[in-house]
């Protein structure tokens, strides 16, 4: 059948102007990613859920398997990528391949991307995040990291020869939702210790404990963690976390891994965006700042809720490695105290230095 004939048969199930959320599911082999995918599919009858199983690190594989669930039935599609691996291709053949498939087959309600053998979800998350800015049909909804409760402690201890971060630490640092799975295989004490260790790396993200990846889907899907352009309320998932669900800033002051941790700064007042841009660019792009021991401060993930001098709305700022972006959300209430919160997840963080730089961006300091 030709492409044109195929286009005539687009199923009219999902509105054409609807943007399609994509969730990245990362985690070590055997952590329960496939079990989670199957669980989601079993609970989403009647929805068109596309599942992309991406075998990263396999060199020059050019086709990626995709299963599409439609009204309970599953069928297999192949994503044709001209330029090799989904994570390595430029803007994105990967995104284009998914969009082309939707042009031919109709839109999906949701896309789930399982990364197998991929150490670092950052680059692929950045691709989908950037592409939304470029008016893509797809937007990044969130990154879920599956943790194998039994094996994770050992994975966290792994030392890399080049002193780079081990995979488990990186995946935990970058995730929006951390699912500790296989809790039936560990004791309560072991689970508590693991939770503490994970919280020391990333104390911002939601942590969920499961067996057989059985999780309340409302907690992991439609997070809107990277933008608010798809929310009818003008609210963003991240703003919701800061303002309503709440988070416990810097619960843990001592870090076992001594390199990766979460640091939260909160300041009343309004921020000068030009000054903040300067600070973020020095921090993220130039890697200009060092901790008190002379080690470079490296940011893996940054999230913030800001009050800018320029207007009366809340602004969300966030970064994945060097890439950062702002979006505007809801207005501040007239009686609400204007304040700014920045959460840094990274290596060699130094409160004094980051606080000094952040304070320099406040309006009173700019005059
Ligand atoms: N005991 C126990 N086994 C589990 C649990 N969750 C998943 N499993 C089993 O663990 C094995 C690996 O689970 P998968 O879902 O395939 O893990 P994965 O992350 O997709 O791993 P790969 O398929 O190797 O990429 C399967 O045999 C599952 O049935 C759990 O909570 N407890």
UniProtKB/TrEMBL annotation:
<dbReference type="InterPro" id="IPR011629">
    <property type="entry name" value="CobW-like_C"/>
</dbReference>
<dbReference type="InterPro" id="IPR003495">
    <property type="entry name" value="CobW/HypB/UreG_nucleotide-bd"/>
</dbReference>
<dbReference type="InterPro" id="IPR051316">
    <property type="entry name" value="Zinc-reg_GTPase_activator"/>
</dbReference>
<dbReference type="GO" id="GO:0016787">
    <property type="term" value="F:hydrolase activity"/>
</dbReference>
<keyword id="KW-0378">Hydrolase</keyword>
<keyword id="KW-0143">Chaperone</keyword>
<dbReference type="Pfam" id="PF02492">
    <property type="entry name" value="cobW"/>
</dbReference>
<keyword id="KW-0342">GTP-binding</keyword>
<keyword id="KW-0547">Nucleotide-binding</keyword>
<dbReference type="InterPro" id="IPR036627">
    <property type="entry name" value="CobW-likC_sf"/>
</dbReference>
<keyword id="KW-0862">Zinc</keyword>
<protein>
    <recommendedName>
        <fullName>CobW C-terminal domain-containing protein</fullName>
    </recommendedName>
</protein>
<dbReference type="GO" id="GO:0005525">
    <property type="term" value="F:GTP binding"/>
</dbReference>
<feature type="domain" description="CobW C-terminal">
    <location>
        <begin position="260"/>
        <end position="362"/>
    </location>
</feature>
<dbReference type="InterPro" id="IPR027417">
    <property type="entry name" value="P-loop_NTPase"/>
</dbReference>
<dbReference type="Pfam" id="PF07683">
    <property type="entry name" value="CobW_C"/>
</dbReference>
<comment type="similarity">
    <text>Belongs to the SIMIBI class G3E GTPase family. ZNG1 subfamily.</text>
</comment>
